[in-house]
Each structure stands twice: as C-alpha cells, then as structure tokens.
Amino acid sequence: MDITILGIESSCDDTSAAIIQNGVLLSNVIANQSVHEMYGGVVPELASRAHQKNIIPVVSEALRRSGIDKSQLSAVAFTRGPGLMGSLLVGTSFAKSFAQALGIPIIDVNHLQAHILAHFIKEPDVEPKHPKFPFICLLVSGGNSQIVLVKSYNEMEIIGQTIDDAAGEAFDKCSKVMGLPYPGGPFVDKLAKQGNPMAFSFSKPHIAGYDYSFSGLKTSFLYFLRDKQAENPNFIVENKADLCASLQKTIIDILMDKLVKAVKALKVKEVALAGGVSANSGLRERMLTYERRGWNVYLPKPAFTTDNAAMVAITGYYKFLDKDFCSVDLPPFSKVVI
C-alpha cells in the first residue's frame, strides 16, 4: 500500500506544500512573500496574513502537480515549530482541519529536524545520495546555527548551538548596514565572489565547546564601518565587494572551526550541511575541501536549502512508518528545540 504524505510548511514567510509518496517527491510548491523586502526583514503580522491567502491555492497546486487526489493521502504533516507563532498557527490550523475532513492522521514536524532530513528526499530518476548514520550536520539558517549529531531518522542530539545570534542573521544585519536588499545573504554571496576575502578582518568569538556566537561579529562590523566612514563617506560604496568577501570568510571560519573540532572529537566522517545558509557558495566550497581530509560531505540540493514543504513531507513519511502521529489539540511552538 502506498504511503502518501502531504507536507505543509509555514514557519516564517514562505507558504509551501509538497506531496511525497513512498519517500519519493512528486511535487513541491512554494509561495514567496515579497512584501517584506521594503521593511528589511519579515513582519510577523504581514506574514501570517499572507499565509492565510496562500495556503489553499498552494496545497491545491501541490496536489494537482503530483497527480494525487486528496482521497489518496495517508496523512498530513505540518511544521509545528519553531518559527513565527502567527505563521505557524495558519499552517497548523489548516493541516488539522484538512486531515480531520479526510479522516486521516496528522504528523507534527520539527522545522529543524526537517532541514536535516531534507537529505533523504528522493526524486524520480535521480540517484539518491544521502549520509549514513550516524552523521554530523551543520545546520545554519537565519534563526539557527547548530551542530547536530544525527543517530537515526528520529534521534538527534544538539552538541553545539548559537548562544545569541545565528549565522544567517549576521549575514542579513551586516548586509543591511551596507545598504544591500533583504534578504542580504544571497547578495553578500554574489558580491563576495568579486572581492578579496583577506582585505579586512573582523572579530571572532572565543566560546567554549561547540557553541557559536555572532553578536560580537556584528558589533565589530558595525564599528569598523562607522570608523571608516568617518574618514571616507564613500568607503562602503568603494569597498563593497571586499567587505562582503571578508565578512563571508569570517562567518565561514567561525562555523567551520567548531565543526572541525566536533568531527575530530566524535570521530564521525559523515558530515552534512543543512538550512538556508547552506545555499551559500563559499560555505559549500569550504565544506567540499574537507573531503581531502577523509570526510564524506553531503550538500543539500539548492531547492531544499530554504524553507520548503518537501522536507516536512519526508520527515512526516518516516514518522508515519513509526506510527508517530499527534493529537489534534497539540499546539505550535516558537522556541528552538530538537
């Protein structure tokens, strides 16, 4: 009997729905929200309103593209958290109502676990390549920076995480100071390719263990620009590419330093990258250099790096195999947990 999962993702500003059947992705539809660009960041109230507008047509389109009728669905998986509470409530409420109307179970999905399990999404006519258990995953996004020991589909242990800001937030906040559009990460990545990563140096934290901190880097970057602009008002315009390259190198150095320590200490050579910042070309290139040190490196397909329902559906698929369903009264959560 086929196991067909509808996945729904609404943790932030992207409304997404996907269909996975027996672990194979049949459709993945994402509706983006451009309204936040003028504010330089996601406005929670606007995000939740846009989800209300988008969720029905997005789910309908995902079903249409997959060729699956709603009566064929085995369960509905939804992002329960972490994320913006208003946005999560829209996806959670729809998933519960839709599943109840069809008489099928619902499966709650942790957004961070879903990013990691995106590595196990199978696509038609594509040779699968996924990490072997146990593996270490560097999970980096706008809201989270973590090193996770993944023992199985349903057993994950955070061994290091940010104590303040995340890597993605550092990219976005520093790019905003330079006058780049939102979200800033992709623009920093693009300009960094044209600049000298050794042009400038910025503060790197000294945090014990495998935890991260990026607040000091943001402060260092801000003060550096303030002092340089006092000397030359055109400093940013004249040095934007070098600033982006140096900033990107610093963030990658911070991320990789702790990851390398974790790999050495745990003696795990299977290493994966996940989360929105995993789309950064500099980080992906740096990860691949460690294959020369004996790592088996796994990089997610770019389409699965940002928030998407395919990763929710595949997580739901494995939870379905374990009969790990949830009750209809289970509320969403905004706090970061795994």
Description of the molecule:
The chain has 338 residues and is an alpha/beta fold. The protein has 2 domains: 4-121 and 304-321, 2-Layer Sandwich (Nucleotidyltransferase, domain 5), CATH 3.30.420; 135-299, ATPase, nucleotide binding domain (Nucleotidyltransferase, domain 5, 2-Layer Sandwich). Helix content is 41%, strand content 18%. It is built from 9 helices and 10 strands. The strands form 2 sheets. A 5-stranded mixed β-sheet has the order 3-2-1-4-5, sandwiched between helices. A 5-stranded mixed β-sheet has the order 8-7-6-9-10, sandwiched between helices. α1 (44-66) packs parallel to α2 (85-102) and α3 packs across α9. The two termini are 31 Å apart. The model has no long low-confidence stretch (mean pLDDT 94).
Q: So, the CATH homologous superfamily of the largest domain?
A: ATPase, nucleotide binding domain
Helix content: 40-55%
Task: Please write the string of helix (H) and strand (E) elements.
Answer: EEEHEHEHEEEHHHHEHEH
Q: Helix count, per DSSP?
A: 9
For the record, the count of structural domains works out to 2
The CATH topology of the largest domain turns out to be Nucleotidyltransferase, domain 5
Strand content: 15-25%
Q: In what order do the strands lie side by side in the largest sheet? A: 3-2-1-4-5
Question: What is the distance, rounded to the nearest whole angstrom, between the alpha carbons of the first and last residues?
Answer: 31 Å
* Computed CA radius of gyration, to the nearest angstrom: 20 Å
Instruction: Give the low-pLDDT segments.
Output: none
Count the strands?
10
Major β-sheet profile: 5 strands, mixed
Determine and state the CATH class of the largest domain.
Answer: Alpha Beta
Q: What is the average per-residue confidence, as pLDDT, rounded to a whole number?
A: 94
Helix/sheet category: alpha/beta
CATH architecture of the largest domain: 2-Layer Sandwich
Name the overall outline.
globular
